[in-house]
Specification:
single chain, about 140 residues, alpha+beta, TATA-Binding Protein, 3 helices
Length: about 140
Amino acid sequence: MASSAYINLVSKSKENTLTTEDIMNLLQYYKEITAKTGKQLGWEYSEAAFPYEIKEKPEGKGQWFYLKGTEDRYKMILIGVGTQPENTEGTDPLPYIQVTLHDQSTHGDKGKANEICKFLAKKLEAELKLFTGSIMYYYKR
């Protein structure tokens, strides 16, 4: 059964708008910094840290995309963007990122999805609701 984690932007987050293009750019940045770490360590860490290709289908353009695994241990992670229907703070609706593990996803995908969620939440200074339902706060409160 599919499960999801949510990265909710809040009024104190760095950004108040978000697109799939923004997320793809953050994932490219993640690949770059892990490659630099690997270079310092003397091995191809970027291959192990992000074993995915970013794919976008025409019907999901601007709303969602997926990460397709490049190794046998990794299959797929879906990432989408939406806006919160209700906002208790009385401001404009704030966006969220939904990270979904498909039925085909493996335990390796879940581990990588958790890492990616934490990275995105930290960079955006957002609230992260993990697959387990636990909430982590990466914004100043």
